[in-house]
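Notes from hallway chat w/ T.B., transcribed later so I don't forget. T.B. wanted the structure written out for a chain they're using in a teaching module, and asked if we could keep both sequence and structure tokens in one place. Agreed to drop them here.
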Amino acid sequence: MATAFTQVIVGNTLEELPQIYQALEGFCSSFAVPDYTRRSILLISEELFSNTVMYGYPDEESDEIALDISLAEGEISLVFRNHAIEFDSAASPDGPDQENAIEDHRIGGLGLFLVHQLAKKVESRRQGLANITTVTVDLNADDE
């Protein structure tokens, strides 16, 4: 299969999230991405984008966030680029606290845990002032 590719560049505000969804939905439709995989990459993208916007720009400076979406050799690759504060999204977060009552759980952290559960691989690096996060998902991932 030849490589399929699309890119979307948006501002670093939550109001831009529908443009991310639109690009992902168009990509999935064009390349017959299975529904489970489509839903997985939508959730992964929403989590990484919203975390970047909400926590990566404490001074609320304007920036562009780029998302490259590609399909090759049975895998979908999502590459996020931004100039937010440095954050290693590849570090595997702790799973949900199963010892205590739900009311005693700390807020946050479950979204990134879910990203790692849905992805085949999550890589993160800093190149100059840019964060580059690459998430790989099997095209034919299923919910078994």
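Follow-up for T.B.: The first helix runs from residue 17 to 30. Might be a good example for the class.
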